[in-house]
Amino acid sequence: FKGGDTCEYLLSSGRFLGEKVWQPHSCMMHKYKNSEAKNCLIDKHVVFIGDSRIRQLFYSFIKLINPQVKEEGIKHGNIPFEDKSASIKVDFLWYPEVNGSMRQRIKSWTEGSVAKPHIIVVGAATWSIKIHNGSNEALAQYKINITSIAPLLEKLAISSDVYWVLQDPVCEDMLSESRKMITNEKIDAYNEAAVRILNSSSRNSKVKVFSVSKLIAQETIMKSADGLHLPESSRDTNAMILMNVYCNKIMKPIDGSCCQPQPPLTLIQKIAFCFFTLSIIAYLIVSLIHRNNYRKNKSCTDLESGEEKKPAISTPNVSTLEMLLHCFCKLGLIMTYFYLCDRANLFMKENKFYTHSSFFIPIIYILVLGVFYTENTKETKVLNREQTDEWKGWMQLVILIYHISGASTFLPVYMHIRVLVAAYLFQTGYGHFSYFWIKGDFGVYRVCQVLFRLNFLVVVLCIVMDRPYQFYYFVPLVTVWFMIIYATLAVWPQIVQKKANGNCLWHFGLLLKLICLLTCIYFLSYSQGAFEKIFSFWPLSKCFELNGNVYEWWFRWKLDRYVVFHGMLFAFIYLALQKRQMISEGKGDPLFSNRVSNVLLFISIVSFLTYSIWASSCKNKTECNELHPSVSVVQILAFILIRNIPGYVRSVYSSFFAWFGKISLELFICQYHIWLAADTKGILVLIPGYPMFNVLVSTFIFVCVAHEISQITNDLAQIVVPKDNSTLLKRLLCIAGFFSGLHFFSAMQDQSRH
Q1: CATH architecture, domain defined by 13-251
Q2: Which of 153, 156, 541, 715 has its CA 20 to 30 A from that of 513?
Q3: pTM of this structure
């Protein structure tokens, strides 16, 4: 499917999602705010010429600039509007018929040094039908008049945006007696004449035909007050379409893909393209050489002795190089797909539209699948590997459904999804604390391995998709929290389980460290200035700034500020209880004594449901977000206890969810560009016209790509981050050089943009 002209699609085709949300064919429509509309139209002159229907469109358009405007102008006269703060002029000129008077007005703009309007919106026909009682002579005269006007409009269209608005259908049963002659048959005849004449006036007509209003009217004219004029919501949709047609190429909104040209390749993107191309070529060459060597050195028989000779040739360096090139080759092909999906105008994009069924039905479906694939765990410890993978898996699938269904508009769902994000961070605190506490391994190798696995994909996407690091907010979040956990435990005195077992006082020392960490978190969460100063220093500012400031980073960090600490504290308490054999983790055994287990299970279920009731009753997102960091741990702990106290429940897991859990990070990041679209604001459309089939196909590709990237990351981690310290140091110097070069090219890129 070719991308086509999305402006043409925006002006001519689309459908309703629900009752009020208009979805243009193949592209996304941005909902302009007043400030955005003013910035786009600053120092512009817009003119609407026509009858009462065009006057309606005029009022809807100026309300996008100033919502306080009231429809109090003269009904059958000119209406001026001016916004002095932005130097915007919008005029309505009353010309209800396409006649000599309209022609003279349009001609005046084509002559001499008269200032031409930047946008001209013209349309009329119903008055001609009404005044002349729908006669054929009136239609013939209409054709003559529009033929004389068409060349003038073409001349204006060279320097201005000119739109001819086709006539909307009417609801004939609702028309008054004085308008009964205005039939849809007559309107179609006038529209057909206008389109034919405007398209034939020039080989490549620059006058844009605004025909989408007809489609909108067909769905909504029944709600009209008089059968002729559109209801307010439909007029507002038409005005928003006009705003998108003109402003998208100027404002370049992320969620407004209609009428936006493909962004030019940046210098860094060109370098990345060359690198991946060379990697593919090099891999093919190395593969051919390797295969030829293999054939030459293949086992052969010695004719004299009759014994088999085996080549004594070992090529570990070649195989490592081949593996490296193979990874970059696959990655290059995958990144090409990313670019084509979300940067090139090759595939279509559509807006999200939330309905309860679009969220809850897929949730029920995946839960049934998850239960169906139930298996026994290899070990029965609390939060064992299979269980944490399962937890990550079902949470990730729920989050994916939440994103594609646009469920963020429904506050109860939003609050529950916030708990799932917090649970990921809780696992970060729990997992990394447990590792450092038990293993006592604070070496550089461990740190580099974790940082590489977390950040590799995001760094590549920042380069290929031309997005800042902070755009993929979750990865910076878990990266910073990992470094905080590492710093807390690695700083002197290093307190680990082995040392604490020898002297119980070390436990108090560790608790003191955790209290210091909690104090720092509390201080930074209520001191935005101090937080911003820390992350505004170079080079941190390059990583954490978004749109020129670190406010977004502060907001994201603050939203789940305590949950990592809660995860660390839970790990400490659990491991202490486990060491003292105060919990029973045998297969089928309850975690505590029957009485204690039943009491804790009851409290956990009540706590879980209480939190859900509170989250479902939320009315204000800001107020609920303020409480969320302190109370989200209630539902997380309740879930852990419900999942682990009964022995049978702890002994089984869903292999279906666990499989997705192993690639949860890749799924979360890849969804930005190859499942969703326009940087998560819309939905990728690979197969237009078949929404369900499209979701199935795009999901299959998306999951396969995420799985492949997970394998590539694991393979590259073994090569890029070796265990040998001297080799690792050399690699770290190479990585430092890579980022220095990246910063240099980024600075050159920014300079050329400015």
Answers
A1: 3-Layer(aba) Sandwich (3.40)
A2: 541
A3: 0.91
